[in-house]
Amino acid sequence: MSATMAEKKHAAYICSGCELGARLDVATLVKTATKEGKMQLVREHAFLCSAEGVAMIQNDIDNEGVTHAAICACSRRAKTEAFNFSTTAISRGNLREGVIWVRPDTEEARETTQEMAEDYVRMACAEVKAMTVPSGNPNVGGSKTLLVVGGGVSGMTSALEAAKAGYKVVLVEKTGALGGWAAQNYKRVPTREPFKDPEDTGVADMVSRIAADANITVYLNATVTKTAGAPGRFKADITVESGSTVTEDVGAIIQASGFTLYDANKLPHLGYGASPDVVDQAGLEALAKAANGGAIKRPSDGKEVKSVVFVQCAGQRDASGEHLEYCSGYCCNVSVKQAMYFKDANPDVDTVVLYTDLRLPGNGEDFYRSAQNKGVIFSKGVVSTVAASGNGLTVNFKDLILNEDTQAQADLVVLATGSVPTSGPDLDALNAAVVASESKDADIKAEADLQVEKLRAKSVLNLSYRQGPDIPHFKHGFNDSHFICFPYETRRTAIYAAGPVRRPMDMVQAREDATGAAMKAIQAVENAGLGKAAHPRAGDLSFPTARLEGCTQCKRCTVECPFGAIDEDEKRFPLFNESRCRRCGTCMGACPVRVISFENYSVNTVGAQVKAINVPDEFENKPRILILACENDAYPALDMAGMNRHDYSAFVRVIPVRCLGSVNTIWITDALNSGFDGIMLMGCKHGEQYQCHFVKGSELGRYRLSKVGDTLKGMGLEPERVFDTEVAITDIVTLPQRINDYAAQLEAMGPSPMKGF
Amino acid sequence: MSVNNTEMAVRYKNNFLKELEDQAEMGEWIKMCMQCGVCAGSCPTNFHPGWDHPPQEIFMMVRAGRREEVLTSNSMWMCTSCYNCYVRCPRKLPITHIMHGIANYAHRLGVAPKLQPTRNFGKIFWNNAAKTGRVNEVMLTVDLYFRNAEGKFDLMGGIKKALEMQSVAIGLVKAGRLNPLELFGGHKCKDQKGLQSMLKKARELEETRKALKAA
Amino acid sequence: MTSIVATNQTILVVGGGIAGMTAALEAAETGKQVVLVEKNPWLGGRTAQLYRYFPKMCHPTCGLEINLRRLKANPRIQVLTMAEVTGISGEAGNYSVNVTLSPRYVNNKCTACGECSKAVNSEIADAFNYNLGKVKAAYLPHDMAYPQRYVLDPSIIGTADAEAAKAACKVGAIDLDQQTETVSLNAGAIVWATGFQPYAAEKITPYRYGEFKNVITNVEFERLADPHGPTKGKILRPSDGKEAKNVAFIQCAGSRDENHLRHCSRFCCMASLKQTHYVQEAFGDEGKSTIYYIDIRAIDRFEDFYQKVKANPNVAFVKSKVARISEDKNGDPRLWGVNTEGYKRYSEPHDLVVLAVGMEPAVKGMAIPAALSEGIVADSSGFLAMNGNTGVFGAGCATNALDVNRAVQSATAAALRAIQVVNQVARAEN
Predict the structure, then answer these.
(1) For the stretch A540-573, what's the b/e string if a residue is b when 16 or more beta carbons lie within 10 angstroms of its beta carbon?
(2) Is domain C10-102+180-195+362-429 classified as CATH 3.40.50.1820?
């Protein structure tokens, strides 16, 4: 026994309030905690969450030396603030929502309800004994400087807003000037009342504010050629045109690498390439800039444009898959603005916008009205072709209102082609190419090497992460978060996408988005400096540690980590970058030799609970079902089932897990070996529309656990004994039903043959 | 008073929208339509089979330059001035007035559908009422019923129509709304001379306004 | 007396919907002190009243659970519910704020055991379910209500019901003597995140909302589809409880209309597209939806979602602003109008009509304290915009018609703007 072990003092607190005392034999629970839970101190209280109850616990901590407390009362989701003792390891035995509220108050149910409660007391005691109060990740970095990659409106906004909050910023722009696409524009869509006329782009003002800001260092003609490290201690190599490289210490990164226009050359049927008088929106901005408020002249012969047709959704919203499937969102507003360039210079210019759905949300409606008022004509029509005819162009389209095929003549045609994100290579494609490049076939290898080189050249961040050089893509190549409630969550901690790289957006949105990204980056450096986790376990001080002497270098942890937190060291052992870690425990679940653990969540904290559950023998006719429930959705659903008094089987024992991805198969085999009749795995939806807060956690967990079939076979057990069920937080009514159905199924199957071994 | 149709078409180089903005009352509102169709649906004559184009479609045809089709359409003449479309329009277009404006312009160009019932009635009513300042119901009926499709006097047709409407006529007589003696000259308002000069002045003002707008 | 610890480095967040919660959490997780003020007895706002989100079809309560967990774990946020800001004075870095707290009649001893509710007989309209059902006058507003404490409706105070509730509470959590109180606190910066209200559908007279029972709004339809709603998730029409298998959605109910809301409310097209899924989910191929629209605004990546719905043979699209609704003898609402694509007149009966009502900023008509109105101006639709260098910042749907994702972005940005001010205060004080 080490000295530290001796200093531990375990206590259990059993509440008899909220009818617990009336429904349960609390004296027996006290005995269970003392004898079986081996708690050194056990107290019963009639109202544990009251000020007096809490003071009692605090007193034990302060004066009795209690270091570990099992609180057996209500759910961990209730009275959370009351039972928050930051220096003490706390487990919660859920006797209220998990026991008496899901059981009928009848004489015949009393025995099994009591057994349920006793097990939860045993589990709470076992869990807390296996826990340590987390002390925080010691491998913190001190840099609070932000790296912003991209000097367009998004990047400049992030830089200015972060600097205003007092943070230093390194701003890297690959071209020779700040401003990005916005600087190419003549004017921008109005951003404020009365939303009637195009306004100054504001770029010059931003550029001069950046120049004057001592907190911002700008690198022009520069790219990020290597990014190593972790939140709070990134090292970014910035290479400038001359080839020289500077290494900057930064704490967090904002990727504002912007977009390119969809290549109009892919739209020959719309006349692009065939006639110089067919331009894209950037082409029109250039013409408008050249005209500078005067008459806009067409490229072919410099003639003043007297008629112009705007073709919306050119190469966009294309269900065929040939062009962009998405809508770029901003182009309707831009065409309205550009039509105004013509009308404001000369009201007699014919300006027609051909659209299928005009998309001008919010105050865009005012801008639309203003354009109509200036005489811009809007026609709902689908353009089929644009062709040269005589001294101009013919736009052939179907007028959907007048229901006829018709045409319009124009001096100039503008194609609203939309945006493509500059989001770096698709990591899946890159990884596949890397694998192929290890081929022994020289031809395959040569081709793969070329592909690797090509994809690597697209990298924006050049992260030296094992998992690839950039943030993974979501749909259509955007780096957007998939979460509705948490738009900033990328899969690389402290690296935030901002602006049109995350989804198509206009300048107003880009500025808002970039300010939000700066907020998240600042938050990331502050928390990384304190050794705390980032969202969704913000503030969590636990972190994964590995007993490397037991590691077999199987690489499961490095491969599966959804956040790219784990690299490999020179000896090919996993190298944890704690501040990149989001504390989901997927690595722990993945590890076949169980060497990875958190101080307060480990193979042991859950395993000890499984072992603590009393499994009656086969003759008692009391099956046991283990439920491993995701704490984010399934566990709250079970809780709320309790709040609504929806009964479920008394034979289940629920253990919350951080994520299905953290479930180690040892828990399953241990449970089956000790005679459990069935195991329910409750995790979030996975796949394209995943709802897992750790992105890939539930998917990885499911895949891993789908392999337990062999184990079951080896033990001579039916495959149905492990049941994976997808649970949403709203399944409050259906979940108890599912549990009961499963219990009935197991009953029909008969007891597990493993009982009594 | 009337305007030369061909002359106007040439003058506006087929920019029909511009033409109506200049020439038709409230025509400058046409461009503000966003094709929601609530006017069409709100119109009480919506389900009348003889109605070619609802307002929003007329506006789209105007923008598409379908000049002859619009001007010769019966649609504007179908308006009953209930103002439903006007109050419902999300863009606050004075649709009732626009329809009347286009109708009036078509009339001035002389391309409005001949003997379109609403238009025909409107003309007869105006000519009748403007004469004395009071409507002569008997003469109104005669003018309305005793003319054939070509506008020629038609005794037999008139008698047939009059017999059909017999019960209505008797009701009007009983209510004192129709005096058969008005066949020989009816009642009039007091200041006949004043009335005529007032109408003349109104016409002049209208012409000046239109000329100003077109300039 | 409620006590609040606040200084000139504290950020006050007004409104506890998803925008306000986000602003509060982002600031607090960056180490700032926050006071969060919410007028309802619970946090979460209108997103908590949604069944699913577009385009993922996931559940808003899933994110709410995470946000509540963040909140419970963060001692830097002080939450005041049933509270409204009634006065602000001062300037950036030095505001003095009055907050008026309405009595809940339940103190923080409450364990949410529900005994008081059992003891009470009176029922009140269920505000959480947009008054589509009733709840006991001692109630927990919804399953995820935070603070997890019951509320006594003021209507029973002074009655035997209130005494019965008090008697039933074993932990002494019911305090019938609670009074309205006003507390003062300091703040360096203020985030104004008061959200929106659904446009009052009865103002759109031709749609006869409030008169025809089977004409409801999109926010009400969310409650019908929710398993925890008044119909337990069954899509039953209000007049006769018949399954509503043929549902019409009327877009721009109030929005893009100068007689009602000038602006486009942005979210309603996607909301209706999403709600066609509810019909499909409930009735399979027997469930038919028709969307009457002007323009389908499935902006940017939402286009995928629109294309999928469009490909569903059980969903029809009619380009038309519906002119009026009448009611057939069997209670079917009948829609009248013209499909403007080729001028096709229609007169279609449906089982149920859902009005896709737009967003009206909740600040509209609200008495904005003077110090606030100097720093923040409302546009012609009543949304807030910043005007100059002050310490008050709009967030979420108080600033624009936004979907949830954009509202959260806006709130995250607002948190930084507030931090810029309090950091300046901190630098000055150090």
Answers:
(1) bbbbbebeeeebeeeebbbebbbbbbbbeeeeee
(2) no
